[in-house]
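Board notes (copied after class):
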Amino acid sequence: MQALFIGHTYIDVTMLTDVIPTGDAKDVAKDYAVSFGGNAVTAGFACAKLGHDVDMICSLADDWLGHMFRDMAKIYGITLHPRKVSRSSLSFIMPNHGKRAILRARDADYLEAAPQIDLTNCQALHLDGHMEEAALDYAKRCRKAGILTSLDGGGLRGNTHELLQYIDVAVVAERLCEQMNLSDEAMLAYLKSRGCKIGAVTQGERGMLWYDEEGVISRLPALRIPSDRIIDTSGAGDVFHGAYLAAYLDHRQGKWSDHFRFARAASAHKIQHLGNEAGLPTLDEIKTNMASLPEI
């Protein structure tokens, strides 16, 4: 195991359509994709696609969707450590002009405690805040062992404040800033106060505001992609997380500015493809984006 990802599992059904029927109306989608989903889960698949040994603690049900997810993980060589639930969670995603509507059905009533696994040889931990008690426990264990800890701060959770004191790399969404009534700059100050070595706020097409190893704040612009090539932005942030962890695992002494530029090119690939699986880039595709796509 090189990296451990902890999060909630979804099966995503992504439908490309200009119309969302209501009442008795019917329509036909232009295209669709069925894939794995969930923040840390998708990040784990992205990291595995880039050649790393990934273990995953995630929700899993013994139903047809659960069997589908096991098959997906097997293809990518991901070792699963399931936390049992009664029913699989499902997301319906409708991309539309750079935005996306999402409808979810989730079973987060875990039927057992999170598994305790050996962290020998683990070099990085990534969390999305789900399984709060497990996230905190593993963050503490990894911090004690000197293992890099990373957080996808997509939203405010019950243990966010406590958890952050064990996080090395915190990349949060503007939604968390809104929930905490903080500006993006104030959020960076807050992350510094919690001891995060690297902190960032993702800002969609405006790129990312972040501070580096020296605490210096700067902006990483987004890459310019023609609007007619933007198909599905859902999962782009998750691919970003998985890619910067892959970059870290490849170059542990490298600069985070380089890790984030690598990840930016990975997420640029994702938004040009429908569904999470189709949007996972190869190393060559990331290198091509880095060389060919200008900054906004």
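Comment from the instructor: The chain has a mean pLDDT of 96. The chain is about 35% helix and 25% strand.
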